[in-house]
Amino acid sequence: MANEREAAPMPTGPLIAASDLARIAGGAGVAILDCTSHLPAERRDARREFEAAHIPGARFVDLAEISDPASGLPTMLPPVAQFEAVMRGLGIQAGDLVVVYDTHGIRTAPRLWWMFRGYGHERVAVLDGGLPAWRAADGAVEQGPAAPAREGDWSAMREHDAVADTAATRVAAAHASSQVVDARSAERFQGLAPEPRPGLRAGHIPGSVNLPYEQLLDPVSHAYLPDDRLAEVMRAHGLGLGRDIRFVCSCGSGVSACVLALALHKLGERDVRVYDGSWTQWGSDAALPVETGDGHVYALKTYVAAPGKFAAMRDRFLSSAAPLLAEQGLMLERSWTPPEAPDTFVYLLKWRSCVDFDQAWDAFARDPRWLEVKRRSEAQGPLIARQESMMLGTSTGEMR
Fold first, then answer.
1. CA 131 → CA 105, 128, 202, 214, distances in Å?
2. Biggest CA pair distance of the chain
3. Phi–psi pair at 248, nearest 5 degrees
4. Nearest-angstrom CA–CA distance, 274 and 255
5. Do the two domains 15-136 and 163-282 of this chain adopt the same fold?
6. Is residue 251 annotated as a catalytic residue, yes or no?
7. What is the pLDDT of residues 212-239, one digit of tens each?
8. What positions belong to coiled-coil segments (predicted)?
9. Domain 15-136 homologous superfamily, CATH
10. Is the pTM of this model over 0.70?
């Protein structure tokens, strides 16, 4: 543990490793907060679990105490005075490095990270892997309630600037320059599984894309994936990284959406907002449209290779064309070669309904990178003898 004279260095990104936290925990200007919360169906008491085992010096934050009780929704941002009062009661000072964790690994801690950052407090980080990572690094734990805190002086520096309301989310879902990304499970997104909250319709916001937040995490440690894997997963789900896209993250109630928001921030995306009411708000409003299915439009393309060129044709598409098409919002769903036609390569593309296919394809075809790949690969003649395209329409099961 650090001694009280040591300053707390700010991590280089939004996460802090357990080994780095161990070096500064207990030092001046370091505040550690456990903001674990469980779903009602899990029937677990997060505060009682905190008192059974927590990082030494940590204090417990009840998400209900930093949510707006007047909103009628589960975890909406509270009035700023309410948030300030809770943070001051926990002893948070204006210059503190606030380290947030939960006992799941990564699930609820990013919500508090997002709240602090939106209010202008940049010195905040999430313990990557949470309490399990701390224990795996041989970190000590203590029992009992947190010791009483000296009153803090923390104040919000601005109105929260990373939140989206329903109107802004609806606009974002309808434009190619922005993306609404839903962190719920694929079954809930497609309307195949019932919502855990009574009275909510099944399905998703029309025009949104689905990336279940668990896919951003290591399946064993429940810490975030490395950056290269994060980017790979996001692009595979159609997220337009590095393209000046405005992202609006949604989920069931605005909590796991923050897992996605932090991951985007970690990869350098800065125009990222959270739809605070998320599906609980949208799905309960009968005036708002709901879509089922996976919400994409599909096209099937078939290429027949020139004699002796099949492998070169297939490899060129998979290694060069597919990534460039994804940059335009045209994602490769899958590809295959029919057993009866070994010189034929078939692939299925999908895209959001707000993407203009012809415009996106034209931008791909004119991309200097693709033109150079074509020039080099066709120096000895064309790779493709014949090609066909078939629009398959949308997978939407219902719009209501």
1. 6, 9, 34, 17
2. 78
3. -120, 120
4. 9
5. yes
6. yes
7. 999 999 999 999 999 999 999 999 888 9
8. none
9. Rhodanese-like domain (3.40.250.10)
10. yes
* Residue 54 backbone dihedrals phi, psi, to 5 degrees: -150, 165
3-state SS of the chain: helix, strand, coil percent to 5? 30, 20, 50
| Contact of 345 with 314, CB cutoff 8 Å | yes
DSSP class of 357: H
Contact 37, 63 (CB under 8 A): yes
Pairwise CA distance, residues 30 & 93, whole Å? 9
Reported as a pLDDT band with limits 50, 70 and 90, residue 40 is: confident
**Cα separation values, 359 from 172, 200, 236, 396, Å:** 19, 37, 21, 22
Distances (CA, A) of 122 to 6, 94, 156: 20, 11, 11
Check residue 19 and give left, alpha or beta (phi > 0: left; psi -120 to 50: alpha).
alpha
Pick the catalytic residue: 35, 249, 251, 258?
Answer: 251
Cβ 384 vs Cβ 306: under 8 Å:
yes
Pick the CATH number of 296-394 from 1.10.340.30, 3.20.20.140, 3.40.228.10, 3.30.70.100: 3.30.70.100
* Domain boundaries along the sequence of the chain: 15-136, 163-282, 296-394
We find that the CATH architecture of domain 163-282 is 3-Layer(aba) Sandwich (3.40)
Paired residues of 60 in beta bridges: 34
Nearest CA among 197, 205, 220 for reference residue 41: 197
Residue with tokens 């939140």: 163
The pLDDT tens digits for 142-187 are 999 998 889 999 999 999 999 999 999 999 999 889 999 999 999 9
How far is Cα 351 from Cα 179, in angstroms, rounded to an integer?
12
What is the Cα–Cα distance from 238 to 349, expressed in whole angstroms?
11
CA distances from 366 to 295, 384, 385 (A): 28, 18, 21
Query: What is the distance in angstroms between the CA of the first residue and the CA of the last residue of the chain?
Result: 57
C-alpha distances (whole Å) from 39 to each of 99, 189, 221, 253, 257 are: 23, 18, 20, 11, 15
Contact by Cβ (8 Å): 298, 394 = yes
CB 141 within 8 A of CB 201: no
Say how many residues make up the chain. 400
